Automatic annotation (TrEMBL):
Listed name of the protein: Alpha/beta hydrolase family protein
Statement: the UniProt record of this protein carries the keyword Ligase: no
Coiled-coil ranges from the UniProt annotation: 81-108
Segments forming domain DUF1023: 351-518
Length: 597
């Protein structure tokens, strides 16, 4: 245990300077990872072909992974050192206050921490006492109140006991703090070598949890906004020092990555840490279950379901495998910067809760002239992220080709819990109403970081049940943060007329293939809205009165865009008018939209 003299004389600025050094390494690693992803990947893919390209891409991916690991681990060391300095400084401050109090009272603090005090001149000396002084040590009965004294009533004794106890507590606190941080700092180390392995990433997740527990009083999770508006989130973020922002990013990446209203580059950096750690954790759990058994087996009685496969599924094998596939799809898009001219990707949200969620942007929406947010429908989840990401990649390509002088960002928003079955889940409205506040928060967050409603032309694209969620969001907000709404294969938007949506009917656009049965199914499920009017089909009336309408109905009064694709999922087929019409709305080129009349 250190002495009180050592605590008094300690210079904790040395820890802070060391933390600054680790901070520099962490920040430079994050910047290097960004350069590797955004500046090196494109030229490499444009100039290298064949095995040379494959090898270079593999090395570049590993390099980015290494930088990501350095960013996180060095950030944890920085935070631990800053927290250590903060806690030791607090103990030192308490000690110095006790020493100052002793000096003011003209008491003497001995080397062992005991306090020598003059006995009160107003009181007679105790029997067998040869001097007018006494010595107080720590450990006197609680409370240690000034003036408490013993039976002799000497107020100086109580003062001395209080000071001695405060000195002891300060030294004990410093010792406990030193031991606690020494343990965690010893664990924050990596093996030799230039390759970050899955085992190292698993250890990184463990380190993060340990540091969170250790520094809780210095940088706690409770101070991060939860359930507040994007504007409030941004206000909190702007009120932090740059050092505090960096510490929150690497210590609580999941919480920071989920905050609507803060810069996309911050969310992306944080969520990449979460993605890396989640991937190795899910892979570890999946590996522990063993290989996936065959789904069926052949028996004397014929082909039957394999009990081993059923057991594997019951233990979560299918769920884990699907989540891993989704994470691979996200990583693949993050690694595609520069391929076919694709812009950098930003991971604006990610978690594996329930069915899993992911928000992936093509291009930085914070600075985009045009922004599109795609809300997928039934069965959307992390496991199916590949298809949804591909759709918005295609929208970006078309939009970018239509308006090369403007910047465009297209976002796949798997940010709500969508129904996972056509019946009965997709026939229920609560999924839309529960998802609506999340969508509104995200859109408000975009508008906050972009600089207001006029900073970017924003289009929300809803597919299938996703359009129902868009309708619920528009009804709930009163200030839907979008300029246009595009729906494809909509089963209904919970309103009866396009004018009931916040963007106004002139900015509501609908696509429905002739063989897409979902709009009709939506009427069966009553996902549409009602209005007094006449239902027509190609101008011919077939129903009148208080009729239910969905966006593809003439009575809904939306722009009905020309569709040259078939089925419920073909609206994003390449080189089709269905896709081009969506892109035209995204960039505000309404004159290029082909409508059916």
């Amino acid at each position: 245990m250190p002495t009180w003299q050592q605590l008094r004389d300690a210079k904790f600025t040395e820890y802070e300077r060391a933390a600054d050094g680790w901070s520099t390494v962490s920040n430079r690693s994050d910047a290097a990872r960004t350069r590797a992803d955004q500046e090196m990947a494109g030229p490499l893919r444009a100039t290298q072909k064949g095995e040379a390209q494959t090898s270079a891409e593999r090395d570049l991916t590993q390099l980015g992974r290494n930088y990501q690991y350095l960013h996180s681990e060095c950030g944890l060391v920085r935070t631990a050192l800053n927290a250590l300095a903060s806690e030791l400084s607090a103990a030192q401050k308490k000690l110095k206050q006790a020493l100052d109090d002793a000096a003011d009272l003209e008491f003497t603090v001995n080397e062992d921490g005991s306090v020598e005090y003059p006995r009160s001149a107003d009181l007679p000396l105790a029997p067998r006492t040869s001097s007018g002084t006494g010595v107080a040590k720590s450990g006197a009965p609680v409370p240690y109140l000034p003036g408490a004294g013993e039976a002799d009533g000497d107020p100086n004794k109580g003062e001395a006991e209080d000071i001695a106890e405060r000195i002891s507590q300060a030294v004990t606190s410093a010792t406990e703090t030193d031991n606690r941080y020494a343990k965690i700092l010893r664990e924050l180390k990596a093996p030799d070598g230039l390759v970050v392995t899955d085992d190292m990433l698993l250890d990184e997740a463990h380190d993060m949890g340990d540091v969170q527990k250790t520094v809780g009083t210095y940088l706690g999770k409770d101070s991060i906004p939860h359930g507040r508006s994007p504007v409030a989130n941004r206000t909190w973020w702007d009120g932090l020092t740059q050092e505090e922002r960096e510490e929150y990013q690497t210590l609580y990446p999941a919480e920071i990555g989920a905050l609507d209203g803060i810069p996309s580059v911050v969310r992306d950096s944080s969520n990449r840490i979460v993605l890396d750690e989640s991937r190795v954790q899910v892979k570890s759990e999946l590996d522990a279950l063993g290989p996936e058994p065959s789904k069926t087996v052949v028996t004397a009685g014929g082909v039957m379901r394999n009990p081993e496969w059923t057991a594997w599924q019951a233990m979560g094998g299918g769920r884990l495998k699907g989540q891993l596939d989704g994470m691979k799809a996200i990583q693949a898009r993050l690694d595609q910067t520069g391929i076919d001219g694709l812009p950098p990707a930003y991971l604006l949200g990610f978690d594996t809760k329930d069915n899993g969620h992911a928000i992936v942007a093509n291009g930085n929406p914070d600075t985009a002239d045009n922004t599109a947010v795609y809300v997928p429908g039934t069965k959307s989840k992390l496991a199916g992220a590949e298809g949804d990401i591909r759709r918005m990649t295609r929208v970006w390509k078309e939009a970018n080709s239509m308006s090369v002088s403007q910047s465009t960002s297209t976002i796949t928003w798997i940010g709500y819990d969508a129904p996972q079955s056509i019946t009965p889940e997709a026939m229920e409205k609560h999924w839309a109403y529960e998802g609506a506040p999340k969508l509104n928060n995200f859109l408000d967050g975009l508008q906050t970081v972009q600089g207001g409603p006029d900073a970017s032309h924003t289009t929300v694209i809803g597919h299938s049940y996703g359009s129902t969620t868009v309708g619920a969001a528009s009804k709930a907000s009163g200030h839907f943060a979008a300029d246009d709404i595009v729906v494809a294969g909509s089963p209904g938007m919970l309103v009866g007329d396009a004018s009931d949506l916040d963007v106004g009917k002139s900015h509501v656009w609908s696509e429905a293939a002739s063989d897409d049965l979902v709009p009709l199914g939506g009427k069966v499920a009553h996902l549409g809205g009602y209005k007094w009017g006449v239902q027509t089909f190609h101008g011919l009336p077939y129903d009148a009165g208080y009729v239910q309408t969905v966006p593809s109905d003439e009575a809904f009064d939306a722009h009905r865009m020309h569709v040259d694709t078939s089925g419920h999922s073909g609206y994003w087929d390449e080189d089709k008018d269905s896709l081009k019409n969506q892109a035209a709305v995204v960039v505000g080129r309404y004159d290029k939209v082909q409508e059916d009349h």
